Amino acid sequence: MTAALLDASAYGIGSLITQKKRFRVPDHQRDYAWTGNEVATFLTDIFDAIQRGATEYFVGTIVLIGPEDGAWEILDGQQRLATTMMAFAAIRDWLYERDKSDDAEQVDSEFISVRKLGASPTPRLALNQANRNIFSEFVARRSADADLDDFLEGEPLKTNRLLVEAAKLCRRMIATWLGKSGASEPDEIEKAYLLSEFLASRVRTVCLEVSTNSEAYVIFESLNNRGQDLSVLDLVKNHIYSLSAASDADRLRANWARMQDSIRERDADDFLKVFWTSRYGRVRLGSLFELMKAKYVDAPAVRRLSDELAADAHQYSALDDASSEVWAGVGRECQHFVDALTTLRAQQPRPIVLSALRAEMDPSAMRRLLWELLVLTVRYQTVGRKRTQDLETMYAELAPSIGDGRLQSPTENQRFRTLATDDDEFARDFAAFSDTNSKRALYLLAALEVFVDKDVYAADEVSSLVSPGAGVVLGTVIKRRPGSAWSKELENDPLLAEEVHARFGNRILLTHPETLELRGLGYAEARAALSASGFVTTRALAKNYEEWTRASVNARQAQLAETATRAWSVGTTP
Description:
Layout: H1 2-6, E1 9-12, H2 13-20, E2 23-24, H3 36-51, E3 57-68, E4 71-76, H4 78-97, H5 101-111, E5 113-114, E6 122-123, E7 125-126, H6 132-140, H7 145-154, H8 158-178, H9 185-202, E8 203-210, H10 213-225, H11 232-243, H12 249-263, H13 268-280, H14 285-295, H15 299-316, H16 332-343, H17 350-358, H18 363-383, H19 388-403, H20 414-419, H21 423-431, H22 438-452, H23 462-465, E9 472-476, H24 487-492, H25 496-500, E10 507-511, H26 512-518, H27 523-531, H28 536-544, H29 550-567
Parallel strand pairs: 2-4, 2-7, 3-8
Antiparallel strand pairs: 1-8, 3-4, 5-6, 9-10
């Protein structure tokens, strides 16, 4: 290990690419992840270094393992190497467009592609399975801007979109920089040569070369301890592969691919936190890897971890997707509750729900569980706006018990019932409630509509009522910027619109045609239309209030608060 560290060498990053010839990102490593901001910062820093006459620009450490079969495996530095090759590809394409084909081919052969005798050129860099073909097609090979645009229109995978968008950005920024200050074409070409040379020899990196996975593992953790940009998922991958048996290689690769396909664009570290909490209790993200490393200590253990991650990832992906087939066997009401928790942005209950899915809780118990979680979310978090840390702590304590069957319902826990607040406190919270998030407010008001109009709606119809295709919108009686039709009310209370427009008592359910019909009307003119609404809560407003004042808003909201205590009642089922 000491020899590997002492053998570290400094390179120009382009020279490193040329000398090492071929690089490979293993399939278990993370995808290309740089956003436009990171790519732009990387290039802008290099341009600035050239402009100020800097002799060097340092881009950090790159760690390689190998070589094996002529290729170096990248442990750390994928984003920088891939983006550097995109920059060289942009220079190459720019030179081709100016009939400098000899120079363009030289850039390609030194920094982008490599060719064995008797064979066709191949990319010097092979990214992981998710990105490999895209990098080869749109970076290593020449491609038109229109081809990149066509690809982006139909590509759903975020990581491939990031990669192609990064390639486009490199082209645009380099072309802009080369043409800056209205330089003549010969001067622009000289500037392209300068940029290529600077990337090759003056953009410096320290390359650490290791020959075994055990050495790589120690360096990887050392990089993490020194604050490098490594996610918990990166560390867990490395831990699994560093301890795994050779006979498990195919199984681990298949599991990792399943996991990545399930979580896709979701936050991978959040998945790991929910995974751990659902099984073992509360954890801080900063200590998660150390706990996982201590829990899974040998080849059989990391094989089990791999299996668990793949299985849980599929269920995790359903926590905010009511349409997932995971929910197909538990009934529409459960799907409605999942959709409601997602609308309310309830993150804290997810470890409990994941535990329940893993335990294969029966539909009736799952229905009760999700309903209780929804009630607590509305009472404590959405309306009460109390400390979510207390929710997170309680859910973390309960989740393992849900998973192993010791607990079926959170309301069996006294702390749950305490956090849910009593009816009087909830009514007071609701009576003062306002919300500028229209999607959340629409859900709450629709839920009250369904609760009071049981003759029209089933309990699980809230989701369909607020779906985009239903044509239901959240309206306000008085808008923040009311027209002249409200002059009388504003004369009596100049701050009325500003201070009550987001109050829940001022919210109403409307259809799209009704919003057009009511546009520009004052309350007196709008009241007739409101009284004919298809929504019982909207009709009740028109019936009960002859004028719309601050007192009217407060009175209606108090009425809605009383209904809300019954609609989201602790210990009941809908």
